[in-house]
Amino acid sequence: MTIADNKKAFFDYFIEDRYEAGIVLEGWEVKAIRDGRVQIKEAYVTIKGDELFLFGAHISALPTASTHIHPEAVRTRKLLLHRQEMDKLIGKVVRSGYTLVPLNLHYKGGRVKCEIGLAKGKKMHDKRATEKDRDGKREVAAAMKTHRR
Questions:
Q1: Nearest-CA neighbor of 39 among 4, 75, 84?
Q2: Burial bucket for residue 45 (CB in 10 Å: 0-12, 13-18, 19+)
Q3: Which residues contact 143 (CB under 8 A, 6 or more apart)?
Q4: DSSP at 76
Q5: Looking at residue 19, what is its pLDDT?
Q6: In terms of CB atoms within 10 Å, which of 42, 49, 66, 79 comes out highest?
Q7: In angstroms, rounded to a whole number, what is the distance separating the alpha carbons of residues 103 and 6?
Q8: What whole-number distance in Å separates Cα of residue 101 and Cα of residue 17?
Q9: pLDDT tens digits for 25-49?
Q10: pLDDT of the residue at 21
Q11: Is the separation of the CB atoms in 118 and 16 below 8 Å?
Q12: Band of the pLDDT at 53, cuts 50, 70, 90?
């Protein structure tokens, strides 16, 4: 079940490969995510040393958060992947000029997972072509819908 999608990632990047990563979260963050108070539109994945981190994901604290915890809405959260996957991703980002972008947050087995994509940036003409294709498909779908009636 999807919690939050990053639709902007598909407009700005060519997604070449997808990976599912776990996220290190605090208790109040899990509760806020279950309540739908998360946004990953501005988020991206960074590399520090030999680890991956989710940066810029905004998780708003619930108003009922305890008084002894001072929640930070935008903090760096560690991503959990197998060592082989991490090494492969880091190698492609460093050598080949790829970017890592979060695509969505979802539940799997009661845990929150982050799907990250190995992506190449689109140029402006690529974005226009994507928009043109999308509009064309929308027009065809509308024509088919009116034709059925």
A1: 4
A2: buried
A3: none
A4: -
A5: 92
A6: 79
A7: 5
A8: 11
A9: 888 888 888 888 888 888 888 899 8
A10: 92
A11: yes
A12: very high
Mark residue 42 as left, alpha or beta (left: phi above 0; alpha: psi -120 to 50; beta: remaining): alpha
The pair of structure tokens assigned to 139 is: 């027009």
| Six token digits for residue 132 | 């043109």
Structure tokens at 35: 């309540």
60: pLDDT strictly greater than 90: no
Structure tokens at 89: 């991703």
Tokens, residue 137: 């498909």
pLDDT of residue 66: 63
Q: Say how many C-beta atoms besides its own lie within 10 A of residue 54's C-beta.
A: 23
Q: Where are the beta strands (DSSP E) in the chain?
A: 2-5, 13-23, 38-39, 44-48, 51-55, 58-59, 77-80, 99-108, 111-121
Q: How far apart are CA 134 and CA 66, in angstroms?
A: 46
Amino acid symbol at 29: E
Residue 80 has pLDDT above 90, yes or no: yes
